[in-house]
User: Which sequence fits this backbone?
């Protein structure tokens, strides 16, 4: 009786062992990568002492600077635009009376999460190729459009979750207290929605920043982002400089995801 | 009595044949309100009383503008407000969940309506302070609404709804979340606020005791209809329908035969042969079989052989502290409960099993409409 109520998976035989193996297999390679980013030698496998040299070198590398800057530009643009669209979609799917096709719209917004990325990438490649042929335009627009598109469902999820957990009576109360629909939105809905919007923004930012497959296929010549640049480097000589770039990149991602976690958690 | 004064006042809210049908999926039609008509007068404390699902909250939401009637008119001082959105109605609501804005302070919550109405900062600030004083919460002006107790949130919700001087204040079961003692306090507080502000209150509750204590008039609702409207005393002493008699307080039901009728009274022969003079609901002309109700405290128990209206045997005596309930198995079948107020030193002279009589107070009996 007493034990049935508080079953704990922790007490199962071998649980601890399995957990440790899981964590080790997940994090050992990453840990190794970070450790060798501080290698004084040129090998990514033989330790020759501690040094910041690869960080310094990466920092001074113009190609890295350019790619990192482009990545940030694309991620910022895609995150902001995608979050705006996602916010509108989330409001339309939660703050209206259920209408015909609501489920279809919901599915439509979320399908990109299920379509294999390589399929999206090839589809975009072919689609944009025909536009390139027709217009001759080869600018950054394709990457911006592509990133915005695949970021929308990621931005949509936390915003929708936030809207659904909000008490609808608050908006009713605002209307009761003479707020027009627009003012009820700006004074009550939006302030309460901010954690969701910030969450969506950061999630979209990270997703855009990390993307390789779609970027690789959509980008025009000379439009390397940090991940595609790194991928390109691995085809040549591999030095701990790659480790250093990866470590910084990892740090930024972890930072943003952690911020996202706390922002969406705490305000509830 | 205040009820008499208020009878002459002009109507604040008039609902005329208001129906509300909620159209669900395919065949799912729910008639929440069925051709309801009611007039609520200026400065009245009017209560909509009924069990959950009776339509009382729907009527409130139609007056507030959160829903629109399927049919009928709702007049506010003679003007049809049924098509107006909520933000254009000079009517405010105290919500069951309070619905205080969590990202604003107590003061900002109270000032919200005034701000939306475009009042100046100075005017808003002055009114907020006045409202805080009215609900005795001056010290908490800059607190977040999550940092105050349930009773305090209740007061803020009240102050927020009263601040813009609404013509009518709607209260949707506002006390249901409070504990018993706080609820009692707030009942008195609400009554005081209504008196001090002179605003018409429309109060929704399913608590009959709350309705009886606070209201000038009560409308008892069931299944989308208003069954009876009257002062608490009328509703309690002269229930017109079985549902009303049952829903409010305890009642004894007796089957009888009409002997004769006058304007608003009838002589009814009860089982066992005794005839009582009973009140009639408005406009009822009964004949033949009727149901008569008698409240347990409007009858007394007497020793067998003394003059009595009904006779039976004591089946149970239940002591309640303030009063004692005598359960009498009537000789003609059925049970009758008599409530006797206790006082010190008058221990019951009756024993279970004893033959007893039941004597009615004058005007104890009331005929039902069914």
Assistant:
């Amino acid at each position: 009786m007493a034990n049935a109520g508080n079953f704990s998976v922790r007490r199962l035989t071998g649980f601890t062992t399995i957990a440790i193996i899981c964590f080790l297999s997940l994090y050992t390679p990453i840990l190794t990568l970070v450790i060798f980013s501080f290698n004084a030698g040129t090998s990514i496998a033989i330790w020759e002492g501690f040094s910041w040299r690869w960080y310094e070198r990466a920092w001074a590398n113009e190609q890295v600077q350019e790619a990192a800057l482009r990545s940030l530009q694309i991620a910022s643009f895609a995150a902001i635009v995608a979050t705006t669209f996602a916010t509108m979609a989330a409001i339309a799917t939660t703050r209206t009376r259920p209408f015909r096709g609501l489920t279809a719209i919901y599915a439509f917004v979320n399908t990109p999460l299920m379509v294999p990325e390589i399929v999206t990438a090839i589809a975009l490649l072919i689609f944009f190729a025909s536009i390139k042929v027709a217009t001759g335009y080869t600018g950054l627009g394709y990457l911006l459009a592509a990133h915005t598109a695949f970021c929308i469902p990621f931005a949509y999820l936390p915003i929708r979750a936030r809207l659904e957990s909000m008490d609808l009576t608050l908006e009713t109360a605002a209307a009761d207290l003479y707020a027009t629909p627009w003012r009820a939105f700006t004074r009550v809905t939006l302030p309460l929605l901010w954690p969701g919007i910030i969450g969506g923004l950061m999630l979209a930012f990270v997703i855009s920043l990390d993307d390789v497959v779609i970027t690789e296929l959509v980008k025009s010549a000379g439009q390397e982002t940090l991940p595609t640049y790194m991928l390109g480097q691995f085809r040549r000589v591999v030095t701990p400089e790659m480790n250093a770039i990866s470590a910084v990149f990892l740090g930024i991602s972890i930072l943003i995801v952690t911020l996202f976690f706390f922002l969406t958690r705490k305000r509830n | 009595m205040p009820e008499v004064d208020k009878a002459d006042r002009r109507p604040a809210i008039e609902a005329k044949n208001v129906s509300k049908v909620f159209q669900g999926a395919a065949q799912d039609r729910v008639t929440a309100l069925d051709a309801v008509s009611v007039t609520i007068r200026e400065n009245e404390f009017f209560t909509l009383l009924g069990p959950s699902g009776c339509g009382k909250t729907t009527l409130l939401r139609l007056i507030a503008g959160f829903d629109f009637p399927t049919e009928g008119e709702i007049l506010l001082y003679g003007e049809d407000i049924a098509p107006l959105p909520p933000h254009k109605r000079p009517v405010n609501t105290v919500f069951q969940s309070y619905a205080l804005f969590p990202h604003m302070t107590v003061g900002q919550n109270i000032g919200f309506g005034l701000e939306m109405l475009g009042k100046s900062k100075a005017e808003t600030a002055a009114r907020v302070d006045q409202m805080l004083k009215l609900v005795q919460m001056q010290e908490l002006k800059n607190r977040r609404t999550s940092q105050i107790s349930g009773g305090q949130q209740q007061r803020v919700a009240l102050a927020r709804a009263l601040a813009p001087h609404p013509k009518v204040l709607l209260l949707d079961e506002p006390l249901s979340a409070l504990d018993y003692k706080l609820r009692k306090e707030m009942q008195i507080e609400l009554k005081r606020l209504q008196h001090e502000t002179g605003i018409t209150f429309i109060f929704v509750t399913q608590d009959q005791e709350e309705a009886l204590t606070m209201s000038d008039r009560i409308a008892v609702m069931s299944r989308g209809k208003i069954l009876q409207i009257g002062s608490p005393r009328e509703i309690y002493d002269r229930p017109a329908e079985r549902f009303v008699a049952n829903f409010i307080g305890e009642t004894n039901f007796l089957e009888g035969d009409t002997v004769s009728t006058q304007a608003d009274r009838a002589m009814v022969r009860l089982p066992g042969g005794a005839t009582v003079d009973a009140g009639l609901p408005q406009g009822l002309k009964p004949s033949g079989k009727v149901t008569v109700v008698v409240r347990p405290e409007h009858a007394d128990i007497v020793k067998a052989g003394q003059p009595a209206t009904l006779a039976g045997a004591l089946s149970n005596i239940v002591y309640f502290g303030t009063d004692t309930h005598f359960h009498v198995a009537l000789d003609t079948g059925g049970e009758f409960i008599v409530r006797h107020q206790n006082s010190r030193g008058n221990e019951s002279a009756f024993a279970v099993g004893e033959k007893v009589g039941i004597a009615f107070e004058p005007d104890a009996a009331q005929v039902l409409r069914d």
Q: What stands out?
A: The first helix of chain A runs from residue 2 to 5. The radius of gyration of chain A is 23 Å. The mean pLDDT of chain A is 87. Chain A touches chain B through 19 residues (CB under 8 Å).
